[in-house]
Amino acid sequence: MADTDGNIDSHDYYLDTPQTDTPLPLKGCNSLDWGMKNRLANIFDPKTGRTVMLAVDHGYFMGPTTGLERIDITINPLLPYANTLMCTRGILRSTIPPGFNKGVVLRASGGPSILKELSDERIAVDMEDAIRLNVAAVAVQVFIGGEFETQSVHNMTSLVDAGNRYGMPVLGVTAVGKQMVRDAKYMRLATRMCAELGCTYVKTYYVEKDFDTVAAACPVPIVIAGGKKQPELDALTMAYNAIQQGAAGVDMGRNIFQSDAPAAMIQAVFRVVHENMPPKEAFEYYETLKNTK
Length: 293
Ligand code: 5RP
Hints:
Elements: H1 4-9, H2 34-40, E1 51-55, H3 59-62, H4 71-74, E2 84-87, H5 89-95, E3 103-107, E4 109-110, E5 122-123, H6 127-132, E6 137-142, H7 149-166, E7 170-174, H8 184-196, E8 201-204, H9 211-217, E9 222-225, H10 232-244, E10 249-252, H11 254-257, H12 262-275, H13 279-291
The structure holds ribulose-5-phosphate.
């Protein structure tokens, strides 16, 4: 029976208390719809507004690169320490336990292998399949200055349109070709183009000089790729500097899974990103974890 008395007698309206409205602490994201924000909250910690994305999608053009030969053995044990996993749908379906309930960022572009011209990519995932896989975002490579620049920008804008239709965030991945200079001027151009053309957030590379201008000029969150393997202290220093200069997190692969102690490394990166832990302290933490069995 309906509770008609309770309805008539209800009086707990907290008239002196304005309704709480808790925004996501992510720049440029306030106008997004609830579904898209909810997906972003599975990537970025809603308390810190930052993320540690564990990137293992390299096989989509590189094949089984070092550290990713057996993802079930080397990567699955790291999942508890990441905010988000970035991978392909092949790895997701074949290897990642469905009990993994954090955000997945799905690689959604592809085509050429390392043997060919890399910028000649196409969209490689239908939005319907991304939704079927219940992912938190899709990622597309954008080759500004590359031979097939316009094609890759078109891949991005098509995914943005499909993403907007269904509330799916799109991560624009700025890819730097072999001949291109990796400096702040280039990164400002590439990241700003991704944001202007509709990406929800953007992945770029850290540059030593003026990275703060890259972050400032991009009106949506920026995360940095780790790039080639470096000594652990250097990778932690890069992550720290990027965060202090305005990055909202890292999308790190090789510097984690090619580390001497991947579980220790991802935990150290996590503290740099979410707790602003200075690099030397984070390195000591890494060493302690590494030497604790
Ligand atoms: C591959 C990617 C990777 O996800 C990205 O480069 C991050 O990995 P790493 O830290 O190893 O550079 O987009 O195309």
